[in-house]
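C-alpha cells please, single chain.
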Amino acid sequence: MKNFYSYSALLCTSLVFASTAAFAVPAVDNAGVAAITTCPTSATGAAIPATAYHSDKIVFAITDKLVAQNAADQIRLDAIPFNTPLDIKVKDDPRKVAHIKNKVLTFLGASTNPQLGNAAKIRIDSVLYAAVVCPKSP
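Here you go.
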C-alpha cells in the first residue's frame, strides 16, 4: 500500500507540472540555404564547444515553368529540366518547422509568392536528414 501512495503522489505531481508547462509554436523556416558545413577552428587555441549542424537532402522535380524571384534569373531557371529527379542539400534548423517547397523555391531563385503558383509546380519525392557534429577543441 505504501508504494501505491508514493506512486499516486508522483502521478499528481507530474500532472501539476505537465499542466503548467509552456509550449511555444515553432517558427517556420522558408529559406533554402546551401548546406556547406565547415567546423570552426581557433587560430589562438581558444576552446571551441562541440557544434552540430543540421541539413536536409530534398529530392524533387519541377513539373512546370517556374517564375524567378528576379527577372534576370529567369533564363537560368528555365534551363532546369522538368519532370526529372533533382536534389539539393539545404541547412535545417531543428527548432523550426521546415517549409520544404519554399526551401526548394528559394534555393532555385524562384518566387515564393503564392499568387504565382510556383509551389504547385514542385513535386517533393523525398526528404532525408543529416547532421554533422564538429568535435570540441581543447
